[in-house]
Specification:
The protein has three helices and no strands. The protein is mainly alpha-helical and 73 residues long. It has one domain. The chain starts with a helix and ends with a helix.
Length: 73
């Protein structure tokens, strides 16, 4: 859990400080799409989970897509 909290602090710092913004966005994209990939693999192997975990998948994909869009800007 400490790793997740440290990454959140890094992402918030990137939103505030322009000099680390790009690195924060890259880490956000890798982290979120990595979680989404793992969750998708789990769905393929284990079958559909409950609705809450499907909502997490869509949120992870959405945050990853927003990160990519911001990097392209």
């Amino acid at each position: 859990m400490g790793l997740y909290l440290a990454l959140v602090v890094f992402w918030i710092s990137g939103a505030i400080k322009a000099d680390i913004r790009q690195a924060a966005l890259y880490s956000l994209v890798v982290f979120m799409l990595g979680l989404a990939f793992g969750r998708s693999l789990s769905i393929i192997v284990d079958g559909l989970p409950n609705n809450m975990l499907l909502a997490y998948l869509f949120l992870e994909l959405g945050f990853g897509a927003v990160g990519i869009a911001l990097l392209r800007r």
